[in-house]
Write a structure and sequence with these properties.
The complex is a heterodimer. In chain A, helix 2 (91-97) links the parallel strand 1 and strand 2. In chain A, helix 3 (109-118) packs parallel to helix 4, helix 6 packs across helix 7 (243-256) and helix 8 packs across helix 9 (286-293). Chain A has helices at 2-26, 91-97, 109-118, 130-138, 198-201, 219-229, 243-256, 267-276, 286-293, 326-336, 339-349, 367-370, 376-379, 404-415; strands at residues 68-73, 100-105, 125-129, 142-143, 167-168, 171-172, 174-181, 183-187, 210-213, 260-264, 281-284, 301-304, 310-320, 352-353, 382-384. By secondary structure, chain A is of the alpha/beta class. Chain A has 14 helices and 15 strands. Chain B is an all-alpha fold. Helix content of chain B is 73%, strand content 1%. In chain B, strand 1 and strand 2 (68-69) form a beta hairpin. The radius of gyration of chain B is 26 Å and the shape is extended. The two termini of chain B are 47 Å apart. Classes of the chains: A alpha/beta, B mainly alpha. At the A-B interface, helix 1, helix 3, helix 8 and helix 14 of A face helix 4, helix 8, helix 10 and helix 12 of B.
């Protein structure tokens, strides 16, 4: 009897313990999926900021020896040989500089922002997309940088410099990293004729099985279509949508809904959908197309940037305003954006490098061509991700645009 | 047998013994010392954080700066109850939780009954270990494994191909399957514990009175084990109600957890307001469960 009771207690304790640990893992960060969307960064709004005397920036850094920095980055941006022994740009840097690098990855910009703001002193360096960078600047979490202290900076592509998502009121807040565009992919063996525009993907009459990115920022993709199909709405920037424009975008998304077979956040999910044929047309990144084409057996896909343009991302390395390890922070960012390392990251991750000299250093000599690194014409109609705010980001005054809260709520309603 | 009393020396007055003696005399202090840590955890950390969450639900974010303004407002709740999608998501989640609970009961009962009444002691031990073993694996590993099984042209499709069928693929059926799998041990063990307490003599008496198998089960076993079933259902219901990882992995439908997660970084007050909804549902459920005797079983 006593043994039975003991067994009963042990069983109950085991249940409770497992329940607790289960709920512990249930609260694991969103999408523990490997791979993540390159942080979607700010958009290309052409407004030029006027240079004003900015806050003080460091003029000299001191020694890097013995400092330890904590880097918060997109998966794949900081590698120390743990994922793949050959992929390592931490060990050599640690040896030459005397810094110790610790890093942590995140899945979405919102997760990054959350992590950063709840631990304001933990991370010294962060790779911020445009929809996280401005929030970090506004919240005072990151500090302005002295661009003269970066040896790699002069070689960064000029079109990435001085952008609204990395420069505020003429004050630079970080160093550009790399960029990419969202693209339209389709199964060449299942879809003929080949699609040429996003509008076809939003129309169920095309008969496509559509796979779309599962995030509120996707509303901007609908707005990009409306910029061409509904000129009467006068949308100048897909992240600056007032009530009428926003309602039209949501209506377009609702119209698309019957054609949607999958929504993805994890790139491997889109890969398996395309392989099995659950979806045959979708929003994608170049890396996914490349991986599908080299899969065994290869999947017949092709990819284009459609006629309307596209949304995309561009990342910036930023430094914590409260960091005590300034020297190592500057040194490591400089290292990551230097030609050789930037080339390695761009190839590993699958994006266009930020450093113009990286193109001659990539293992695949076609890398920069595939990713359009040096084709400014390609990026003219790519709208880098940016957080929509009530203050319209296209500069309009007199109207209030929908802010990101509204985007999230509308996206929840569209998904149903 | 001698009865001479050997002089026993009094126990040494070491500090530990003195403290033990003092505590023995002061029962109240002993109680406080034992309960202090769990109460601090429960009161301060757990209830305290829930309270802060509760407070957040009545605040709002500034549309321009996205920072939380600490002024009392009911806007979050108004939006929650007037927008159709949140009601849909809540009903969908509660429905799934109920469905998973019922499925788990149906699957767990025969297993628990076999373990409690039919199996030999050795078999019982082996079965208990077998049921508890999946709990040693990480939740994420199990969820991802199911994703592989259920994906198009995954393991399930491959297995059903010779029969000319295909699996359900991703979607709500997949969510139901995975939840049932994950929470089944939590249902089997309480029911087993409850069935164990039913004396075999009752079953024999029922059969002596002319009750066949189903009659005995319906009129004797079921009512006696009902509190245990309810206790087990608390696990399956509450765990399903709050989960967001499985719906995200094997479907694209939104459950309460998914909506909260998508809002939590940008609009914390709204996420807090919405998280009070499953909390309220569970409190009601626990009150009903207590009524039905779930907490007397142990």
């Amino acid at each position: 009897m006593r043994i039975r009771r003991m067994l009963g207690f042990v069983a109950s304790a085991a249940i409770v313990a497992s329940a607790c640990s289960t709920s512990g893992t249930s609260t694991a960060p969103s999408q523990a999926a490997p791979s993540q969307a390159p942080s979607q960064a700010a958009s290309v709004a052409p407004s030029q900021a006027v240079a004003t005397p900015g806050p003080s920036v460091p003029t000299e850094l001191g020694s890097t020896q013995g400092q330890t920095i904590n880097v918060l980055s997109w998966p794949g941006y900081v590698e120390s040989g743990k994922t793949d022994k050959a992929v390592d740009w931490v060990t050599d840097f640690q040896k030459s500089s005397g810094c110790t690098i610790k890093y942590q990855v995140f899945g979405t910009s919102d997760e990054a922002y959350s992590l950063y703001t709840t631990n304001p002193e933990q991370f010294d360096v962060v790779s911020a997309s445009g929809d996280a960078s401005l929030r970090l600047v506004r919240g005072g979490f990151v500090q302005p940088v002295n661009l003269d202290l970066f040896k790699s900076y002069p070689d960064i592509f000029p079109s990435l410099k001085n952008k609204p998502y990395n420069t505020v009121d003429g004050v630079p807040y970080g160093v550009p990293h790399g960029r990419g565009s969202n693209l339209l992919m389709w199964r060449t063996d299942q879809v003929t004729p080949a699609p040429t525009s996003w509008a076809q993907m939003f129309d169920p009459a095309s008969g496509y099985k559509v796979s779309i990115y599962d995030a509120p920022i996707y509303i901007a993709d609908a707005a990009v279509v409306l910029m061409k199909t509904r000129p009467d709405l006068n949308i100048k920037n897909p992240y600056a949508l007032d009530d009428t424009q926003f309602a039209a975008a949501i209506e377009l998304l609702n119209k698309q809904k019957p054609a949607v077979t999958q929504r993805w956040v994890d790139y491997t999910k889109q890969m398996s959908d395309f392989t099995s044929g659950t979806s045959n047309v979708g929003t994608t990144w170049q890396i996914i197309t490349n991986l599908l084409q080299i899969a065994k057996p290869p999947v017949a896909v092709n990819v284009i940037k459609p006629t309307e343009g596209a949304t995309g991302w561009s990342d910036t390395w930023m430094i914590n305003s409260k960091t005590k390890n300034l020297a190592c922070s500057y040194a490591y960012i400089d290292y990551l954006t230097s030609p050789a390392t930037n080339a390695k990251i761009a190839e590993w991750f699958g994006e266009a490098p930020g450093n113009s000299k990286s193109c001659s250093l990539t293992v695949d000599k076609n890398h920069c061509t595939i990713f359009h690194a040096d084709e400014e014409a390609f990026w003219q109609d790519v709208w880098y991700w940016q957080t929509p705010t009530a203050e319209c980001v296209d500069g309009r005054t007199g109207v209030t645009c929908k802010n990101f809260d509204d985007w999230i709520k509308a996206w929840t309603a569209v998904k149903g | 047998m001698t009865t001479t009393a050997t002089p026993v020396s009094p126990p040494s007055r070491s500090p530990a013994r003195r403290i033990a003696a003092w505590l023995h005399r002061h029962r109240g202090v002993r109680l406080v010392v034992i309960l202090a840590l769990p109460l601090v955890w429960l009161g301060l950390i757990y209830l305290g954080s829930l309270f802060i969450l509760f407070l957040n639900a009545f605040w709002k974010t500034d549309p321009f700066t996205s920072l939380v303004i600490q002024e009392f407002t009911l806007d979050n709740f108004i939006e929650l109850f007037t927008t159709a999608v949140y009601t849909t998501v809540t009903l969908r989640t509660v429905g799934m939780a109920a469905l998973v609970t019922v499925t788990c009961i149906v699957l767990a009962f025969p297993m628990a009954f076999y373990m409690a009444k039919v199996a030999s002691v050795r078999k019982r031990g082996v079965l208990a270990v077998a049921i508890l073993m999946p709990l040693w694996a990480s939740y994420l590993i199990k969820a991802y494994s199911w994703r592989l099984i259920l994906s198009e042209e995954g393991v399930l499709d491959w297995a059903l191909k010779p029969l000319g069928l295909t699996g359900p693929g991703f979607g709500e059926i997949a969510v139901w399957l995975v939840f049932t799998y994950l929470w089944l041990p939590f249902m089997i063990l309480p029911i087993y514990a409850g069935l164990e307490r039913i004396p075999d003599s009752l079953l024999e008496a029922s059969s002596d009175l002319g009750g066949r198998g189903w009659m005995t089960f319906r009129r004797v076993v079921l009512p006696l084990s009902f509190p245990a079933v309810v206790a087990g259902s608390i696990f399956t219901f509450s765990l399903t109600l709050g989960d967001y990882i499985v719906p995200g992995l094997v479907s694209t439908t939104q459950f309460i957890g998914n909506v909260i997660v998508i809002n939590v970084a940008q609009d914390l007050p709204f996420a807090a307001a919405y998280s009070l909804v499953p909390l309220f549902i569970i409190i009601v459920y626990l009150l009903i469960a207590r009524r039905l005797g779930a907490f007397e079983a142990f």
